[in-house]
């Protein structure tokens, strides 16, 4: 291999939210970075997410505020600072779709919330709203139930990905084929479509592609788990924005609704929660849509959906393997020599994953260094919103 092959401090593989956030954070700290993406930026899970910057409150629905709830509690504030332009990244200009997410308890269930509100940490984060403070679709004389405001943001993820791509400047590289570069028995870099690149650290943030990539590198650890979802989306001229977990009495929301602006001025409602979990995964798309239609007719009977267009989307959450396929509690980072492998486990936890990489670099005394300029390389395109190609 010629000694003139390009080099960098940190080579990141995977341009979803985790890789893009990390890339921007490291560049701000002065590191030379390159981020390699084989498809579209955000085109894995990130652009298919609901964009909620959780503070963990929904995890307390079981009545217990777990370790996960505590770890994630600081995230909304960090994102708010970044969005205001005075945080660890400058995300000013990224559209905040909603400054709050709501917990919505249909009439019959209000009593079931007593265990949820038993936790003091929850009581301090949640306030009840009524009347014209209610989200617009719930401001109807027929609405019964209680609504609580959670201090959790919902972001326009396509705008977020675009801003992070801007912060990446010339560090983004498109490459379909990645092979390990070993020298003296050590992984020292990667071949990107045949181009040898040396790096002081390689960080894999390849989402569901991580298992395949690790296999290429000859590694069996860390093990990845995939948890499938079968999401439902609908678009109608009558829809107004709604950002809410509708409670169903269990430890997961019956439905989680987020709303996303399409270019024709209409709103797209995106339905997740229990509806999209195992039982929903087992349903065929037409049955899943019929189920969602019945749910909305039951919960919001005044909603006119006669002109609605419907579609479903199957997508896997990629995470480090847990016993019983449980939800991991935090961002995850494993270290093996020069290789770091991470999953944020939640879009909201991307800052936590970046913290772990920065802590590794500091612990290993890896300071920013100078590298020769790179040849011009193709740049990966940005991905499309999740409904693109599914709804007209
Ligand atoms: P991804 O976004 O999947 O990115 C990985 C990237 O790596 C992809 O672009 C892929 O093309 C690339 N890649 C893969 N293999 C290779 C390779 N060999 N070479 C180069 N590139 C490669 N979290 C929240 O906090 N709030 C939410 O509201 C929320 N809603 C969600 C809703 C759904 C339906 C789903 C599925 C997840 C949701 N999540 C949410 C979780 C969140 O979306 C994920 O945790 C997060 O997007 C993962 O980001 P990532 O960058 O690790 O992975």
Automatic annotation (TrEMBL):
Presence of keyword Oxidoreductase: yes
GO MF terms held by the record: oxidoreductase activity
Pfam families to which the protein is assigned, alphabetical: DAO
Domain of life: Bacteria
SUPFAM superfamilies hit by this protein: FAD/NAD(P)-binding domain
Domain FAD dependent oxidoreductase: 9-316
Keyword field: Oxidoreductase
Gene3D superfamilies per the UniProt record, alphabetical: D-Amino Acid Oxidase, subunit A, domain 2, FAD/NAD(P)-binding domain
InterPro entries linked to this entry: FAD-dep_OxRdtase, FAD/NAD-bd_sf
Name of the molecule in the record: FAD-dependent oxidoreductase
Lineage, broadest ranks: Bacteria, Pseudomonadati, Pseudomonadota, Gammaproteobacteria, Pseudomonadales
């Amino acid at each position: 291999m010629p000694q003139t092959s390009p080099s960098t401090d940190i080579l990141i593989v995977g341009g979803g939210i985790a890789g893009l956030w990390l890339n921007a954070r490291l560049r701000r700290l002065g590191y030379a970075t390159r981020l390699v993406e084989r498809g579209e930026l955000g085109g894995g899970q990130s652009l298919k997410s609901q964009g909620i910057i959780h503070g963990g409150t929904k995890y307390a629905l079981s009545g217990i505020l777990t370790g996960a709830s505590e770890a994630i509690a600081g995230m909304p504030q960090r994102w708010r600072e970044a969005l205001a332009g005075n945080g660890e990244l400058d995300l000013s200009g990224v559209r905040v779709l909603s400054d709050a997410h709501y917990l919505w308890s249909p009439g019959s269930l209000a009593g079931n919330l007593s265990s949820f509100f038993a936790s003091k940490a929850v009581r301090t984060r949640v306030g009840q709203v009524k009347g014209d403070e209610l989200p617009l679709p719930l401001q109807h004389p027929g609405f019964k139930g209680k609504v609580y405001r959670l201090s959790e943001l919902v972001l326009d993820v396509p705008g977020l990905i675009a801003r992070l791509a801007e912060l990446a400047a010339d560090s983004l590289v498109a490459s379909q084929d990645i092979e390990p570069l070993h020298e003296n028995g050590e992984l020292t870099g990667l071949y990107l479509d045949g181009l040898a690149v040396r790096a002081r650290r390689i960080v894999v943030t390849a989402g569901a592609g991580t298992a395949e990539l690790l296999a290429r590198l000859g590694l069996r650890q860390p093990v990845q788990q995939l948890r499938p979802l079968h999401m439902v989306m609908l678009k109608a001229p009558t829809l107004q924005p709604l950002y809410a977990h509708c409670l169903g009495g269990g430890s997961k929301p019956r439905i989680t609704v987020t709303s996303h602006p399409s270019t024709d001025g209409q709103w797209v409602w995106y339905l997740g929660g229990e509806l999209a979990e195992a039982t929903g995964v087992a349903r065929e798309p037409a049955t899943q849509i019929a189920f969602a239609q019945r749910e909305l007719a039951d919960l919001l009977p005044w909603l006119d959906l006669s002109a609605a267009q419907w579609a479903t989307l199957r997508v896997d959450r990629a995470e480090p393997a847990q016993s019983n396929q449980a939800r991991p509690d935090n961002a995850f980072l494993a270290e093996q020599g020069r290789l770091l492998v991470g999953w944020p486990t939640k879009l909201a936890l991307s800052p936590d994953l970046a913290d772990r990489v920065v802590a590794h670099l500091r612990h290993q005394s890896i300071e920013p260094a100078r590298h020769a300029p790179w040849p011009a390389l193709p740049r990966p395109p940005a991905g499309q919103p999740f409904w693109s190609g599914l709804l007209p």
